[in-house]
Amino acid sequence: MDMTGSQHIEASRDKVYAALNDVDVLRQCIPGCESIEKVSDTEMKAKVTLRIGPVKASFTGKVTLSDLDPPNGYTISGEGSGGMAGFAKGGATVSLVANGDATDLNYVVKAEIGGKIAQLGARLIDGTAKKLAGDFFEKFGAIVGPLPAPETEPAAAEPPQAKTGWLGKIIGKS
Asked: Distance between CA atoms of 152 and 147, rounded to whole angstroms?
């Protein structure tokens, strides 16, 4: 399975690169991540529990960083075993491109799976992989980028008598 994508992040390239190497940030962003531990500057161990269709499995594995080019990007590769559910291995090339004060994170992912999970069908697996990648980068962008500015005026609350629909009919409208 191959997948490419891009995420615009409202943060400097240096900040994004540092966050990609921060296990606390990664733990928050990786869907189903139970633990992640930095073994060295280029190796991590992780445990992730995922549901792919009807199969729920915990994967334990090793992640290795190579082709390090701070703050431009790197290659990340890993392999994990999910016991009877199967295995997953693959890698991604991540490149960071400055875009004004922000950063465009581009990635190319290649993955291979085997075991029970591989029997689920390519459409289900591809869809799940795209959703997991989207969830990761959405959380990553939210954590690394600045928080949105608060609204200048609070939104006016809808008065209770303005209730409509089936609930309004049950409790009555004034």
From this structure: 15
For residue 33, the domain's CATH number is 3.30.530.20
One-letter amino acid of 61 = G
Q: Of how many residues is the chain composed?
A: 174
Q: Which of 3, 149, 140, 15 is nearest to 71 (CA)?
A: 15
State the Cα–Cα distance between residues 77 and 43, nearest whole angstrom.
Answer: 10
- pTM > 0.90: no
Q: With respect to residue 160, please indicate whether it lies within any of the assigned structural domains.
A: no
- What's the first-to-final CA gap in the chain, in angstroms? 58
**How many domains would you assign to the chain?**
1
69-82 pLDDT, tens digit each: 999 999 988 888 88
The SS3 call for residue 76 is strand
For tokens 């459409």, the residue is: 123
- In a domain? residue 97: yes
User: Structure tokens of 44?
Assistant: 């991590």
Q: What's the sign of the alpha-carbon dihedral 5, 8, 11, 13?
A: positive
- Which structural domain range is residue 86 located in? 2-148
